[in-house]
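Supplementary Methods, section 5.1.

A reviewer requested that the exact input to the structure prediction be made available. We therefore reproduce it here, unchanged from the version used in the analyses.
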Amino acid sequence: MALLKPSIVNIKKNYIIIGCTLLVGVLLGAIGFMMITNASYATENGTSQSENVYSNQLVPPPLPDSLTFAGELVPLDNYWVREALDRELTIVCYQHSATLLALNRSARYFPTFDKIFQEEGLPQDFKYLCIAESNLSNAISPAKAVGFWQFIPETAKIYGLEIRDEIDERYHLEKSTRAACCYLKASKGRMGSWALAAAAYNMGEAGVKKSLDNQSVSNYWDLYLNPETARYVYRILAYKLLFENQQLYGVRVSPKSQYQPLAYEEIEVKTSIPDLYQFCRYNDMTYRELKELNPWLRATKLTVYNKSYFIKIPVKKK
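The structure derived from this sequence is encoded token-by-token as follows.
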């Protein structure tokens, strides 16, 4: 039996060698398949593999030589400005789930922002503030700020948004966007710059003004602020850079994956609706469709007091 042991050992070694060879072959095949798939995807979307570095490699996102926010120059020659922007851009580029959701949602909501900003005279860069605030969703903050634009009740009412048991217009996309435009334009007039207006949107005007006075500076970039507000405008700028230079930052989002605008028509309501379920049945839609299109309706009825409301309903399929 002793004479057989070397042969058994050799057989085992052969099996191990064969197994390792097969494993290496499978791995190489998988890598090759991934490379072909990535190359095919890049070709279909008009980009090269070298341009999509953020999918497969850990590399720092490039910073621009110059940058503006709402037409105002960002002083990138200042080291703390450049490093603060680098921090937020790195986070935006690598927090894939949140950034991808913002990219997908932007196709649905940016057209509404673009139209209202143009009508209200607000710079288009402020749509990135909305991403920084809520990631383009009807979010609720610990401080009870609500909606895409994160209004607290007191500020919302000052800017004409109705809040009561049955209605909360902080959830109304168009009305809350116009309210945000009014707030930001008024804040810019009081603060003196769009960057300070953006900071005040996060911190409040009183806090920003107090910091300006205490530190004897006149702009956002030289202020020493609490961590949240100190990062806030840089986060907005990071989203601007990524959204406006998607190929440079390795974004591979196809139009097919993005959420498209919803088709709807509006019904003017001048009298109370005692039962919104019945209203939905009468208008041939589900209650889910009503709530998706009109999240500002917060109850199952709508009481109307000497005014009218416009309720969105889905366009009927022919």
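The radius of gyration is 27 Å. These observations are discussed further in the main text.
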